[in-house]
Amino acid sequence: MKLIVIGAVAAGTSAAAKARRNQDDLDITIYEKDIDISYSGCGLPYYIGNEVESIETLTPRDPAFFKKKYNIDIHTAHLVTEIDHDNQQVHVKNLKTGEIFTDAYDKLVIATGAKSIAPPIDGVDLPHVHALRTVQDARQIKGYIDDHQPKKAVIVGTGFIGFEMLENLIERDIEVVIVEMKSHITSNLDPDMADYLEDKLIKKGIDVRTDTTVKAIQANHVKIDETETIPAELVILATGVKPNVALAKAIGVEIGETGAIKVNERMETNLKNVYSCGDCIETFQRQTNKPVYRPLGSTANKTGRIAGDQLSGGSLEFKGILGTSIYKLFEFTIANTGLSEVEARAEGFDIEVSHNIKPDKPAYFNGTEMNIKAIADRASKKLLGVQIVGQEGVDKRIDVFSTLITYGATVDELFHLDLAYAPPFSTTKDPVHYSGMILDNALSKGRPLKTSDDVRELEANGEKIQIVDTRIEKQHLANCVDGAVSMPHAVIRARLNELDKNLPTVTYCNSGTTGNAVQNILLNHGFNDVSNLSGGNKFYQATKKTRDQ
Q: What SUPFAM superfamilies would the database entry show (predicted)?
C-alpha cells in the first residue's frame, strides 16, 4: 500500500511515523514545499531574540533522519500542485529543478498547515515588513535585524507570536510599539484578565495601543490614522493565520464552518482514503462538541498521530480539546484552559466567576502572585474554565485545571486534591485549593462573589449599594474602590451600627481573604445580602483604567 503525505512539519511527520510503526511494509512518501521539516515553530521568536543560538536546534530532524529511522521518503522543496483523487494521483513540482511529475497513492494525508494572514493594507510587501510562520521567515527576520540594525519597530497583533516577538525584539535593544485593533489585548483571555495583563505591561513601560488600526505601512513609519504615525524601521505582522485548504477544497473535501478542513474523530475527510490533520483542520471543543479552529503544535502532533494510526489499522480517536494554551511574556506567564467567561455565557451557562490572587509559594521562598480566574457552572457546580496570569508555577496549575475540567470535576473536589507540598514549590493550601474553596463558598456555602464589572454595572445603573473597605485606613487613603467606606477588619464589629443590614453590601480587601472574613461577620450578624469582591482591590485597580473609560 502506498501512502502519500502532503506536508512535513508537526502533523505530517507524526502521521507518517505512526503509520510506519503500525505497518512496516507501507510505502510512505512525504512532499513538503518548504526546505525545513519537523521544526519547532514555537521556538522561532527566541532564535530571533538570540536566546536560541542556533536554528539547527529547532530543526533537529532532516529527511535523512526519517529515511534511516522510519524508511520514509521526504522530498523537500516539492510542491503538490494538484490532487487527482479519481485516479488517486498527486501532481508535484520540484521547486529546485522545475520538474513536474505525478505520483500514485492508495491513501492520502493532507497536512498542509496554515499560512499567515496579511492584512489588506498598503505597504505589507515592503522589505522591512515580515510575518513569522516558518523557519525561513525566522531566518529572514533575524538577517534583516542583523543587517539593518533597526531601532524602532511596530508589532501588529497581540496573539502568541506578537507578544513573543515583543519580548525578543526588546532583547535586541529595539524600541517596540505593539498595536491591537480590538479593544483588548490577547484573545485567549477574557477582557478583564486582558486588562489586568495590560496594566502589568504598561507599568513595565511597554507601549500598548488598543483600538488602533494600521491604515498603511510606509518606509520608516506606520500610519494609524490621518494625522498620527508611529516610527518603524521594522514591522512584524502577527495578525493570525488561516488554514491552507485550497488543495483539499479543489477535490471536494468538505470545509467546516470555521473555514478549515472538516474531519471526524478518526481524521477522515468526507472522501474515501483521504485523511487530514494539523493546522489545516478544525477540531471540536470538548465541553460543547462544537467545531473550533485552534492551530497549536500540541494538537497538530496529536491529530497527526491519530491519522497515521487510523489509516494503518489502528483505533485511536480524537477526544476534543479544551483550547489549553500558555506563553511567556517577560517575567509573566499567561495560560488558559476550557471555556472563557464570554464563551460560557454565550453557551447559556449560568456561571460563577472568581478571581483568586495568591502566591505560588511562600514569601520566604520568593513566592510571586498569580491571578487565577476560574469559571464554574452554578447548576452542575462543574469547573468550566480557568485563566492565569502570574510569574512562577503557572504551568503546573493550568495543567491541574485542564485535567480537572477534562474529567468533569466539581468545585468542591478541588479542596480535596492531594497536591504536592513543600515550601520551595507551593503554599500549604495551593492556589488550586483556594480557587475551589472560593467557588464552593459562593455556590454552596452562601458566600457570594461580585466581580469588579458587577460593581461598576450596579453603580452605573444607579443601584444603591454599600461597599466596605476592610483594609487599614492607610491603604484606603492610597486607593480604594469608588464609593467605598473604610471599616478595617479589626474594628468592624464595633461599627456594625453604621451599616444598613438590608442594603446590598460588598466587602473587599487587597485580594479577597480579609474581605471574605468580614463578609462572614456581616452575614453572622444578620445582614441579608453580602458579597465579597472577587480579586479584591488589586484586581479592581488593575482593570480600572480600561474598564472605567
A: FAD/NAD(P)-binding domain, FAD/NAD-linked reductases, dimerisation (C-terminal) domain, Rhodanese/Cell cycle control phosphatase
The catalytic residue among 42, 277, 280, 509 is 42
In which region does residue 330 sit, left (phi positive, over 0), alpha (psi from -120 to 50) or beta (all else)? left
Q: What is the DSSP pairing of strand 207-209 with strand 175-179?
A: parallel
Q: What is the largest distance, in Å, between two alpha-carbon atoms of the chain?
A: 90
**What number is the average pLDDT over the span 430-452?**
97
- Per the CATH hierarchy, to which homologous superfamily does domain 325-444 belong? FAD/NAD(P)-binding domain (3.50.50.60)
Q: Which three cell numbers stand for residue 137?
A: 521567515
We find that the CATH architecture of domain 449-547 is 3-Layer(aba) Sandwich (3.40)
Region of 235 please: left (phi>0), alpha (psi -120 to 50) or beta: beta
Residues whose CB is less than 8 angstroms from the CB of residue 134 and which lie 6 or more positions away in sequence, other chains included:
34, 36, 39, 41
DSSP 317-349: ----B---EEEEETTEEEEEEE--HHHHHHTT-
Domain ranges of the chain: 2-39+46-113+242-311, 129-239, 325-444, 449-547
Closest listed residue to residue 325, CA positions, set 302, 350, 303, 297: 297
How many whole angstroms separate alpha carbon 417 and alpha carbon 420? 9
Q: Report the C-alpha gap between 420 and 361 in whole angstroms.
A: 12
For domain 2-39+46-113+242-311, the CATH class is: alpha beta
* Beta-strand runs (E) in 183-324: 207-209, 216-217, 221-223, 229-231, 234-237, 241-243, 274-276, 283-284, 291-292
Give the whole-angstrom CA distance, residue 151 versus residue 174: 5
Q: Is 62 helix (H, G, I), strand (E, B) or coil?
A: coil
- Based on the residue annotation, tell me whether 280 is a catalytic residue of this protein: no
Residue 86's alpha-carbon distances to 105, 256, 314, in angstroms, are 11, 22, 26
Pairing of strands 107-110, 2-6: parallel
Kindly give the pairing relationship between strand 369-377 and strand 383-390.
antiparallel
Fold category of 129-239 in CATH: FAD/NAD(P)-binding domain (3.50.50)
Task: Say if residues 336 and 325 touch (Cβ distance below 8 Å).
Answer: yes
Q: What is the pLDDT of residues 133-142, one digit of tens each?
A: 999 999 999 9
pLDDT at 546 over 80: no
Q: Give the model confidence (pLDDT) of 280-339 as tens digits.
A: 999 999 999 999 999 999 999 999 999 999 999 999 999 999 999 999 999 999 999 999
CB contact burial 244-254 (16+ within 10 A = b; e otherwise): bbebbeebebe
* Residue indicated by cell numbers 455556590: 443
Q: What does the alpha-carbon distance between residue 31 and residue 13 come to, in Å, rounded to a whole number?
A: 10
Tens digits of residue pLDDT in 513-528: 999 999 999 999 999 9
